[in-house]
Hints:
The structure is a single chain. The chain is α+β, with helices and mostly antiparallel strands. The chain has a single domain, classed as CATH 3.30.1330.40. Helix content is 23%, strand content 31%. It has helices at 43-60, 81-91, and strands spanning 3-7, 15-20, 23-29, 68-75, 98-103, 112-119. A six-stranded mixed beta sheet has the order 1-2-3-6-4-5, with helices on one face. A hairpin with a 7-residue loop joins strand 1 (3-7) and strand 2 (15-20). The radius of gyration is 15 Å and the shape is globular.
Amino acid sequence: MTKVVYSAEGNHPYAKAVRAGDLIFVSGHLAWGDDGELIHGNIEQETRQVWKNIRKTLEGLGCNLQDIVKATIWLQDTRDFINYNKAYSEVFPKDPPARSTVRADLMFDCKIEVEVVVYKPVAVTDRH
Length: 128
């Protein structure tokens, strides 16, 4: 099995994603706007932006949201869980991935961080 590291943009000490066989582990995403600034809205706005960013990352890896098998979500405030769930349901109206959601102090001034694990088999011709 070959490990492939997809570097983060800029000079950051982490990988945007790492492929290990048929699995792709995508690093945590925040609600960064297209202008590079964090969006400071309500939990639904930040949630939608986070998933927009994840979708964009996955497309760059030849994947989509339906390829996600596991999502881990960190919320700054447990009181946001119900409204987070509403926005999450828009992203996955059916057949959602397995999910864990916990409350945590986040490294940036934001309400949410999400990381995902994707199952995307390597094409037979791509295997080493």
